[in-house]
Every structure is written in C-alpha cells, then in structure tokens.
Design goal:
Radius of gyration: 17 Å
Shape: elongated
Strand content: 5-15%
Strand order of the largest sheet: 1-2
Distance between the termini: 37 Å
Structural class: mainly alpha
Number of helices: 5
C-alpha cells in the first residue's frame, strides 16, 4: 500500500509497505489449478494464441496466482480484461476469472 509521496532533490519518492503474500492453498486450490491447466490445454488446442511450449510450461505451474498471471499474459484477451485480472488480489478469483475467459467458446485468437 502506498503511504505517501515526498519530493527530494527534484524527484518524487513514494513510501510504501508490502502487502502479505497471496495465500491460496488446499484441496480447492489444487482442483482449481488442475481445472486451469485443462482449460489452457483446450484453449491452446483450438487456437495458436498460446504456443505449445508455453502451454506445457503452464501445465507445470502449481501456484494459482502465478498460473493466473501467466495465462492472462499469454492468452489472446483484450487488454482491459488482462488488466482487470491482474488487478484482482485474490489468487483464486484471479484464476477463476482467467479460466472463465479462455473457456468461452468465442475465446479464440483474432
């Protein structure tokens, strides 16, 4: 969180604190990751937005937050949707949102 701004020697300085790491663990997280990996495989199979090598690397991911961010980065989604996903703090909701977007029938490369 940003605490404030200060001006020093002609430059602006921000004072901030780090937020706690995003923790989303347990059986629901594991199931969500498996579902996301399957959705990425299906998405990659129906269009070329995600290269096969990237899809294979995504299948190895186990962190819901990292997986969501990487899918959003590589999928052919509108910039506004990518930004909305990346602004979602909760890893589970972020992953659910990106899976929902790439699972839509019209989610194909332009």
């Amino acid at each position: 969180a940003i605490l404030g701004f200060a001006r020093e020697d002609g430059f602006r300085r921000a004072e901030a604190t780090l937020e706690p790491a995003d923790r989303f663990e347990g059986p629901h997280a594991d199931e969500l990751v498996r579902s996301a990996v399957a959705a990425v495989a299906a998405y990659a199979a129906r269009n070329d937005a995600i290269a096969p090598g990237v899809a294979a690397r995504l299948a190895e991911m186990r962190s819901p937050g990292v997986l969501a961010d990487l899918i959003a980065a590589h999928a052919d989604l509108p910039i506004a949707e990518k930004q909305r996903i990346l602004e979602t703090r909760d890893a589970g909701r972020r992953l659910e949102a990106v899976v929902r977007l790439i699972s839509e029938p019209d989610a194909q490369a332009a």
